[in-house]
Every structure is written in structure tokens, then in C-alpha cells.
Amino acid sequence: MNNNLAGLSKEEMDKVSAGLAAGTVAVRERNHLPVNADEVEMEQPEHLRTYFRERLAHYRSNLRKSNRSD
Fold first, then answer.
1. CA dist., res. 5 & res. 17, Å (int)
2. What pLDDT is recorded for position 52?
3. What's the number of domains the chain is made of?
4. Can you give the chain as a three-state secondary structure string?
5. Residue ranges making up the domain that contains 61
6. How far is CA 54 from CA 43, 51, 58, 61, in A?
7. What is the pLDDT of residue 24?
8. pLDDT tens digits, 16-60
9. Would you say residue 21 lies in a domain?
10. CATH code, 62
11. Do 28 and 34 contact (CB within 8 A), yes or no?
12. Per the UniProt record, which residue ranges are transmembrane (predicted)?
């Protein structure tokens, strides 16, 4: 596995960015900071919006689980 993000293709880099955006939204929601998930979703390339929603649901779920154990 290549750990160098500079070596990724444009498509792969867009996917990484969409995942990062989803994680950022979930963390901001958990910390009660202003964020509009719908707006962030619309900023993603159209073909990655489903992926963004999947990752957002994943991160929200994981943050809820970790919140219970705190």
C-alpha cells in the first residue's frame, strides 16, 4: 500500500477528500460546532456524494459508540 498521497490519482484523491470532509462534519457535530452536512455534501463531486453519505453515517456511528464509553 502506498502511503504517499501525492502518488494517488485524481479520482482516488477526490475520494480521500470526500472521506475527510465526512469525518470533519461528524466531529464538528459531536463538538456542537456549526456545520451544515447538506452544504458540505453538495460541495462534493456528484459521483462521490453517496460515498460521502456512507462515510458520514459510519463516522457518526463510531463517534456515538465512543461517546458512550467516555
1. 11
2. 98
3. 1
4. CCCCHHHCCHHHHHHHHHHHHHHHHHHHHHCCCCCCHHHHHHHCCHHHHHHHHHHHHHHHHHHHHHHHHC
5. 10-69
6. 16, 5, 6, 11
7. 98
8. 999 999 999 999 999 999 999 999 999 999 999 999 999 999 999
9. yes
10. 1.20.58.250
11. yes
12. none
